[in-house]
Amino acid sequence: MIGGPQGSGINVSAEIFAKALSRAGYYVFGQIEYHSNIKGKHSAYRLRISGEPVHSHVETVHLLSALDEETLVGDLYHEFPAHPGHAHELAPNGAILYAEENRKYIEWIERDDIQFWEMPYAELLERALTEMGKPGQARAYRIMNNSMVLGASVGALGFDFEPVAEAIRDSFGGKAGKVAEMNVLAARHACDFAREHFAAKTAYRLPDAPPRREQVMIKGTQAVGIGKIQAGCGIQTYYPISPATDESVYLEENQADHNLVVLQTEDEVSAIDSAVMAAHGGVRASTSTSGPGFALMPEGLGFAAITEAPGPVVVIYQRGGPSTGLPTRWEQGDLTFALSAGQGDIPRIVIASGDIEESFYDTFDAFNYADRYQLPVIILVDKHLSSSYQTIPVFDTSKLVIDRGPVFDASKNGHGEFFRHAFTPNGVSPRSVPGQPGGAFWTTTDEHDPRGHITESIPNRLLMMEKRMGKLALAASEIPDEKKFRLVGSGRTPVLALGWGSTKGAIVDALRRIDPEGATYSFLQIRIMRPFPTAEVLPILQRAGKVVCFDGNFSEQLAQLVRSETGFLPHHRVVKYDGRPFSEDEVVTALEKAVSGGTERMVVSGGRVVGPEFARAEFDRMVELRRKHGKMLPPMVPLPPGYNR
Amino acid sequence: MSTAADLKTYTPQDYKADIHNDWCPGCGDFGILSAIQMALAKLQIPPHQTAVVGGIGCSGKTPHYMNTYAFHTLHGRVMPSVTGMKLANHELTVIGVGGDGDAYGIGAGHFVSGGRRNLDITYVVFNNDIYALTKGQASPTIGKGEKTKSMSEESIMEAINPMLLGIACGYTFVARGYALDTKYLVELISQAIRHRGSALVDVLQTCPTYNDLHSKTWYAGEVDGQPRLYKLEDTGYDPLVHNPADPAEITQKKAQALLRSQDPSGRIALGVYYKLEVPTYVDFLKEKIPALESSPLVDLDIYHRDIRPNLQKLM
To answer: What is the predicted pLDDT for the residue at B2?
Structure first.
C-alpha cells in the first residue's frame, strides 16, 4: 500500500509499479481509495501482487509506504476524524517505510509486531539532485517524493529497478526528458537504499513471476470505453461526474482515431436527450454518469422507450449515495433505481458487469441490444470497477459482431408507406435513418399510432404497451444464458454465494482461498437484472443448501430483487454500506459466519462482520485518538518547482 | 448522379402532413407552421433531409403537421434533441420548434448552451406569453403587472427579453417575427435556416383562447400614433457584424440590439437583430475529427475499428 495526500502523485507511483510488475508477468489488482478533493486529503492505493490471477483486494497490508504522517497515524485535523491511518492494517511482521522526518509519529503506533523502516528521503533526494547538477534544491523538488516512495517500495520488495525506470519514463510520455530522468534517479536512490537496508529483512517476498504473457493492465473506465469503440459507438455525451468522467475523457482522447464524437453537455438531462436523438439519427449513442447524474435522466429514459429509439446505452458508475453522498467511494446503491427510473412502464435492459473484463464485452453487447430491441440499455458498474486496475488477458474480438437490428429498406417498401411504429410479429419495427429518402417518419413521447401520430385510442394503447413491453420477453428469449448469469462451481453445494457487480472479484477470490475444490461453496452471479433470468436461476437457488447474498447497499437490493422476481429470499443477506468495496477477507468471514449459523442479515465493514456496537466504538476511538494527540495540521502538497504564485 | 428526387421542385404542400390539426381555430401557430413550410419550399430543402423537432405544448405538436422527419420530444428539451440529431447527421436541416415556456422557462439551461454551441440549427420559438395547453398560466415572457383572462393574478416577475437573452447566450442569428405576418416570417425563417450557426427566431404569437392582452387587435394597434409593430430594416438598422474578427464591432452590434429589443417608446421591432458569421461547432469538430469533412457521423464506418493500439498502450 502507498498512502499520502491527494495531488502528491501516489496513484501515479502505484500505477507505475503495477505496470512494471504486469510487464514482468505478475497478476496485479490495484485499488484506490480517495477523497472528493483535489489536493491534500488522504488517499491510499493498495496493490495486490500475485503469481496467479487476482480479482480483488485484501484487508491485510504487508508493506506500507507512507508519504506522510497521516498515512501512519490517521486524520488528526478534523473534529471527527475521517480515518485512523493504516498501521493497524499491517500483517504481523509486515513493514512500514516512512520518512525520517516522520519518526516521532512512529512512536504513536502501538504495535510491536511489525517492522519500521526509516527512509532518509531528504538526503537521498539531495544526492540525486546533486548528480543532476541541482544541489541544495531538495525543498523545491519535494514534489518528487512520490517517485522516492515508489523506489523504496521496489527496493524493499527486492524487485528489479530497470522495468520500473522504464515505466516511469513511459508515464512521462515515453520521452527520456530531463524531468523523467530526475524522477528515475530519485527513485533509484531510494530503491538502492531500501534494497541495501531492508530487502533481507522482509517477511513477505514477491512470489516468482509467472511466465510472461500478453496482458493489459486496465481499469474499468478504459474497458468500457474500449468496448464502446469496438461496438461502433458514434457519440458519447456526458456531464462531468465522479467516478464516470474518466471514461468520457478517455474517449475524448480517442475521438480522431475512431471517429467518435464526445459531447460535453450542460447537464445530464441534455446528455441523455441528445444521445436519444443521436440514436434516432442512426448513430450508436451512449452516455455515462453516476447516481446523481442518473437522477436527472429518468425523463430521457422514457423518451427513448416510448419513441423506440435504438438506445442510448447508459453506463451508471455507482458511487455512495444518497444525494451527493460519498462521491468517490463505492456502493451498489442504484440497482433498484436503475430498474425503476422513469414514469410509467419503461422497457429497458439492465446489465450488471461483474468485473473489468466483463464490462468490455457487456458494453459491446449493450449496443447490439439497443439496436435489436430499440430500447434504452443500462449498464451498471461502480467506482470499484471503474477505478481499480487489473491485469487481464487481451480482449478477444473475434466473435464480436455488430448487429444493427431491423432497418427500413426503401427498395423493399412495396406500398410506399413507412410506419415507424408498425406492429410486427416480434414487436420490433424496422427503423429508417433521417436523411433516407422514403423513410420520413413521425414519433412522439405521447402515446401514438403505428405512423407515430398521437392517439388516445384504447385498442391502440393496448397494442402499443404490449409491443413495447413485449420486447423484453423477446430479449429474454434471445440473449444466451451465459450472458444472463454465471455459475462458478456445481451449484449443488451446501452454500451458494449470490452476488452481482464488482462483488464478483472478492467472491471468486474468497472461494478459491477457502474452498479450492468447490466442495462447500458455489457462486451464482446475476449478470442481467432486466429481463431477470427467473426461470434460469430459480432452480439453482433452490438446489443449494444455503444461499448467501452479497449486496453493496443497505437495503439488500439484489436479495429483494431476487425475491420479487423468483419468490425466493436468500437465507442470509450480507450488506456493506460503509463506502468501501468488499475485500476477499470480508467475503470469507461472512461465508464462514453463514455456515456457522450467522444471522439472516449481516453487516460487514473493516474486514469483518460487525455488530451494532461496532460503528459507535470506532467512531469514539478515532475521536479519542485525536483528543489524545491534539490537533494536527493537514499535510501540505508541494507545488511543482518554479511555480510562481 | 442526379436522381429524380434531386430534380423535383418542392412546394409548401410537400412539407404538409396529411393529418387533422387540433390547434384552436384562429391560433397564431398556423401562421408559423405555414411560414416554416414556405421557407423550406423557398429554399428547396428536400423533406427527407429535414428534421423538425418539437418540445411539448401546442407548438410542440408542430412536427406532426410536417411531412419531414418529425420528432415530438420532451418539454424543455428541444435544444438537446436538436443537438443530438444535428451531430448524428450535420448535413440535415434541423429545425427546433417550441413555446416560450419550453425555451425560456423549463428549457432555459439548454437554451443557453444551445446558443453558445453554435451548431448550424434553427430554433423557432412560438411566443404567446402563456402556457396554453395547460390553460393559460403565466410564462416567462408575460410582463410584470400583466394578467390575461386565463390568469387568476397579475404577474409579479419581470418578463424575459428573448432578443437579449439570445444574444447573451451566443446565438449567432437572432430575429423576431410576428405569427400573423406570414410573408415576413417566411423571410426571417429562410434567413435563419440559411444562416450557418445557431439561429433563434422568436415569434410573437396570438392565442385567441387565453391571451386577451396581446391579441391580434393589440398587435395591429398603435403607440403614440405610430404602429406598434415595425421592421428594423425600415429604419436603416444593420444587424450584420461585418468584421467578425473585430470585438469592438461585435460589442457595438450587440449594444444596438439591446436598445432596439426594449424600445422605450413601447413599440416592438421585428426583423433580424443580430447576425454574426463565424465557424460553427461542426466546423471545429471537423478539425478534431477530420473524417467528418467528407461525410456525416452517421455514414462513417463503424465495422472496421481497431482497438489494438488502445490495448497496446495498456501493456
So the answer is: 46
